[in-house]
Design a protein that fits this description.
It is built from 5 helices and no strands. The protein is an all-alpha fold. It has one domain (about 5-25, about 35-140). The protein is elongated and about 60 Å long. The chain is about 70% helix and about 0% strand.
Length: about 180
Amino acid sequence: MTTLTKKAVLSLALTLGFAGTAAAQMPEIPLGKWWKRPRIVEQLKITPEQQERLEGIFAKNRRAFVDLKADVERNQIDVEELVTKKDSDPKKASQAIDALEQAQLKLRRSMALMVLEQKDVLTATQWQMIVERREQWRRERQEQRRMGEGFRGEPGAGAAPGRPRRNGSPPPPEPREEKLEE
């Protein structure tokens, strides 16, 4: 492995490591539209008016998140391509890594701002309950990933059709084409 490749791999690992650290500092909230899940609504006693306001905050930020996530993915591809090339230009690799870090930072910042906006919709008691349950939700999310489930807990939601799940269980079925009888 060349010195450039070693530096690029180390920098990428550090970048991803810092992203995890920054995310860990942010209060964990359930993924997705958690304010619509009956169990969470019941636990936090979320009112219909709060649900409507939380939905509005999410809707306002949704398109931006799609773009920001796409920027992160594009920059990850750029870094990966430069790292895998035998004769990568160190300057280009450094610029690509910087661009990836900036894209990740923008995404984390936007997510944090949305969470803060959602926090303002909740009562102090509801927010405290979220803070107290964050470890439980983190463990549930890790277990779902380990079992190959999606964040809603549906088996197979974490695996593509025809691909084995992470837990070794059979893959979800391939979608079938239904033929219309004439």
